[in-house]
Amino acid sequence: AQTVTQSQPEMSVQEAETVTLSCTYDTSESDYYLFWYKQPPSRQMILVIRQEAYKQQNATENRFSVNFQKAAKSFSLKISDSQLGDAAMYFCAYRSYSGTYKYIFGTGTRLKVLA
Amino acid sequence: NAGVTQTPKFRVLKTGQSMTLLCAQDMNHEYMYWYRQDPGMGLRLIHYSVGEGTTAKGEVPDGYNVSRLKKQNFLLGLESAAPSQTSVYFCASTDGSTGYEQYFGPGTRLTVT
Questions:
Q1: pLDDT by residue (tens digit) across A6-26?
Q2: Which of B7, B8, B13, B38 could form a disulfide linkage to B17, CB 3.0–4.6 angstroms apart?
Q3: Coil, strand, or helix at residue B96?
Q4: How far apart are alpha carbons B41 and A107 in whole angstroms?
Q5: Per-residue model confidence as pLDDT tens digits over B43-55
Q6: Which residues of A touch B (CB under 8 A)?
Q7: How far is B63 from B57, CA to CA, in rounded Å?
Q8: Contact A101/B50, CB-based, under 8 Å?
Q9: pLDDT in tens, B55-113
Q10: What is the Cα–Cα distance from A34 to A37, expressed in whole angstroms?
Q11: Which residues make beta-bridge pairs with A34?
Q12: Which residues in chain B have Cβ-Cβ distances shorter than 8 Å to A103?
């Protein structure tokens, strides 16, 4: 069975600095999707970025980028030029490319942004 | 386009009472999911549906039932609420054809006393 591990329960970053959130996963599959979701205090889950495992190029979305290391089964999220609005819980998630329709979520990392 | 909506947003139940949570989506998505979120445990899948009239068990299905009579609605029922079911419940949907992004509802905070 697939698992997703986020080993950092909490992280802090100074405003305008860069922070990296870690995520590792375990799977025997070769094709899958990986996601980072943001959950601000409002509770609404928002997709930050998505990576298809068959793509070698790391995904980027404005200030958010990932470092996808397929062999190491690592999927870290880098937030550049951190802003106060980035403060939230961040969840890493895995989904098989085919077959099961289930998503596996990590336990989350709470990011604090210091002014 | 409201996306995914959940009713109610908050609820307090006494042990043994029953209730139904309603999830509705207006994006014509095939797949719908119910999760519960507890501190330190991330999101855990309760039940899911891959189409109208179909449901399947997730990771923590005990004590819950679901129904998907209409494509746009996914109901989560608690027949006899227990304090262990105190949680925040999220509904999500995905169309399965555009990268499998999940769209989430705003959540329902349920307290069982």
A1: 999 999 999 999 999 999 999
A2: B13
A3: coil
A4: 5
A5: 999 999 999 999 9
A6: 6, 9, 33, 35, 37, 42-45, 47, 50, 52, 91, 93, 95, 101-103, 105-108
A7: 11
A8: yes
A9: 999 999 999 999 999 999 999 999 999 999 999 999 999 987 766 789 999 999 999 99
A10: 10
A11: A51, A94
A12: 33, 45, 102
Q: Is the Cα torsion angle B40, A104, B102, A8 positive or negative in sign? A: positive
Instruction: Find tokens 């969840």 and name the residue.
Output: A91
Q: Which two tokens stand for residue B42?
A: 């991330």
Side chain identity at residue A59, one-letter code: A
Q: Is the pLDDT of residue A111 over 90?
A: yes
Residue listed under structure tokens 């802090």:
A12
Q: Contact, B87 vs B37, CB < 8 A? A: yes
- Neighbouring residues of B73: CB distance < 8 A, sequence distance ≥ 6: B22, B23, B24
Q: Sort strands A64-69 and A60-61 into parallel, antiparallel or unpaired.
A: antiparallel
Closest by CA position to B87, among listed B27, B34, B25, B22: B34
List the structure tokens of B37: 């979120």
Taking the C-alpha atoms of residue B61 and residue B104, their distance in angstroms, rounded to an integer, is 19
